[in-house]
Structure formats: structure tokens, C-alpha cells
Amino acid sequence: AGRWHALVLCAAVAVYCVQDAQSARKPCVGKTFQYGFSVCICNATYCDNMEPSTKLPKGQAAIYMTTASAKRFEKVVVNMTSKDNDTTGLDIPWTVKKNVTYQKIKGFGGAFTDAATMNIMSLSEGAQKNLISAYFSPTEGIEYTLGRVPMGSCDFSTRMYTYDDTPDDLELTKFALAEEDMKYKIPVIKSAMQMSERKINLFGSPWTAPAWMKTNNNDTGKGTLKGKAGDQYHKAWANYFVKFLDEYKKQGVDFWGLTTQNEPTDGDISNFPFQDMGWTAESQRDWIASDLGPTLDKAGYGNISLMILDDQRLWLPGWATTVLNNGPAGKYVDGIAVHWYLDQWVPANVLSFTHDDLPDYFMLITEACQGFLPWEEKIMLGSWDRALGLLNDIYDNLVHWVAGWT
Fold first, then answer.
1. Are the CB atoms for 72 and 387 separated by under 8 Å?
2. Residue 64 and residue 15 in contact, taking contact as beta carbons nearer than 8 Å
3. N or C: which end of the chain has fewer CB within 10 A?
């Protein structure tokens, strides 16, 4: 799960083409912050932006350049035709293989957590607009097109809650969105939707079921859903997903996707400190096949992009092949969600192995942040090393069949 950030809308670098857009370039106004790192000022009256990518003549391409010293999304046009005609000074070899194709990119984005949206809503109206524009605007921002939404509280919440904390309410008659949804998450999501010219594909992720549904009767710690696939608790938990989608739809917010459980292996750890619930690949497979898949179909949500795992790539390809190659669960699933926290120890080629085994399912990075290790400084605003760490990991994932990053 996300670790120790104040704002979770943290940037994966995503640049999209906007045809014939016009916007005056506002350069970065730098400020030296902690440890000598440089950050760009963004407030109610000024925020740097990036020049839109307009249609270029045949044989040219645009590169957006950011450097450790000063450059922030500076546009450079390069010639793709002849090195003799290149006046940019950039020595970049290009090889285009027209008949070789790879994965279709789903997009890039961030998470609409309680922490992120509470902080955004605490800003002045002008600062809110400029910040959201930096992420979602087609003329001034980087045009995020993906957004993860926690289904209830998570480790980026100020309190623990679910949408139905009434014991034994198997019919979910007391199900209701929380104050955090109504006051923070939904308003920020709607602001982003209004700002963007592209559809923002939202996906929901649960951290825990209500405590009364779980074997340990607790939102945290070691525990699983009570019973087994097909029973009253597993059916109630599937209906909980439908209730979530229905209630957000009433607020004018539709979802593109769902993950089945945030980090299901956390729930097998004694005294785990924040919201979690344990699954094995087998129990996740059986619940999808008997409960979640049919329930979503019956409720009219059969078009939802359902993703399994939502955990470290350490568990690939085994988790995915267990769920998708054994029984009917695979027909309800579209993708495999992956987190980045063990990437420095687990090679990226496990992603390619997974693609080779399961080429019909996309892979998506659904969570990443810096400063999660116990010995690391939690917040280092403007850290170039951390930016490079994210960039290199995004690259490694993209060249091993991953379709996007949040």
C-alpha cells in the first residue's frame, strides 16, 4: 500500500499529444528546498506549466526535457529524417520497426486518497485549480488519465472506517459512503474530470472488508474473509463492490476498473499495522469465479476492468497463472495489478514471463511511492535521485509489457 506521503498524486511522467492546443509557457520559478533540492513554486497566483504538444511536420518529433538543475518539461523539437539536418545538438539514435508492436498503453496517473484530497481541499481556490491543472489540464498539465480510489479507508486516511461498520449487516442495508468521499475525494475527482478533455479511467481498490466480515474481527492484522467462496460472507463482500459502484454513480462518478484486494499477502502477517485482508491465489480465484464475477455481471458492471493481485511482482507469474489458468475466474478478469516496492530485488523479467504465459491480460502498476523503507527519509521534496528512481522503474516496467502506471 502507499507509504508515508502527504500527497499521493505523485508524478509518473506522462506526456500526451494535444492537437492544435494553444497555451503560453510559464517557466518553473525555482525555490531551494530541503537538502538543497530545487522545487517549482505553485500557488494561487502562479504555477509553471508545459507547452502542449502540437502537430509537427512529417519527420519531426518533440522531446520534453527535465534536468536536475533547472529545466522542467522544456520542449525540444528534433528531426527524425537525417542526422546531417539535426541542429538540436541531441545525439539520440532512433530505430523504428513499423511492423513490431507491443502493449497498448492504458495511461498514467495517481491516487485520490483521503490524504491527497484533504490536502488539496485545504488549499485556496486558486491554488487548488492550479495544482489540479498541473496534473489534468490538456493545455497546461501532463494530462493524467488514470486514478485509483480507495474503497473506504487506507493507510492514507486519518481514521479507520469502512462503508458498513454495522455488525452482521449481510444485506448491506447500512452501506453508505463516508464523509471523506463526499467532502474530499468526490469533489477533487469531479474537478479533475472537469479540467480534463480526456476520460479519466478510475479504478477502485479495497484495503479491508468490514471487521465483522473477517476472521480476526479487525480492520488490521492477520485475517481473512470468514467462510469460503460461495457463502454468505463472500456474497456480501461481492455485493459491497456493487454498492460502491452504485453510490459513486449516484454522485456522477463512473469507474473503469476494480482491483480485487490491495496487497492480499499483507493479511497473512501477524500484527500488520494498517488496513488489510488476506487472500491466497486460490481463494481469490474461487471468490471471483463464484461470487464477484457473477455479481458484477448481474448488476450491469460486466464491462468493468477487473484486476487481480494488486501486490508485489514477487508473486508473479505464479499468482496470475493460478487464478487465470485454473477454472472460470479468468473470464471475469482483464488485468493484473502490480506494486513496485520490491522491484529493486525482483527482476523485471518476471513481468515478461507473466505476459508470455497470459498474453490476453494487461499488467498495470497500481501503486508506488518513495521513502517507504524504515531507514529512509520519508519526505524529500525535489529529490532528483528519487525522480530518477521512479523514471527508471517506469521504463523497466514499460519494456516488460506493463501498460501504465499510477
1. no
2. yes
3. N
Residue 28 C-alpha cell reads as 518553473
Confidence of residue 52 (pLDDT cuts 50, 70, 90): confident
Distances (CA, A) of 228 to 169, 210, 214, 282: 18, 16, 11, 11
pTM: 0.91
Which residues are marked as active site?
A: 263, 367
Report the alpha-carbon distance of residue 361 to residue 324 in Å, rounded: 9
Contact between 138 and 37 (Cβ < 8 Å)? no
- In this structure, the strands spanning 60-65 and 362-367 are unpaired
| pLDDT value at residue 18 | 33
- Residue 371 main-chain phi, psi, to 5 deg: 80, 25
Burial zone of 375 (CB within 10 Å; 0-12 exposed, 13-18 middle, 19+ buried): exposed
What is the rounded CA–CA span in Å between residue 312 and residue 340?
Answer: 6
Q: Tens digit of pLDDT for each residue in 314-371?
A: 999 999 999 999 899 999 999 999 999 999 999 999 999 999 999 999 999 999 989 9
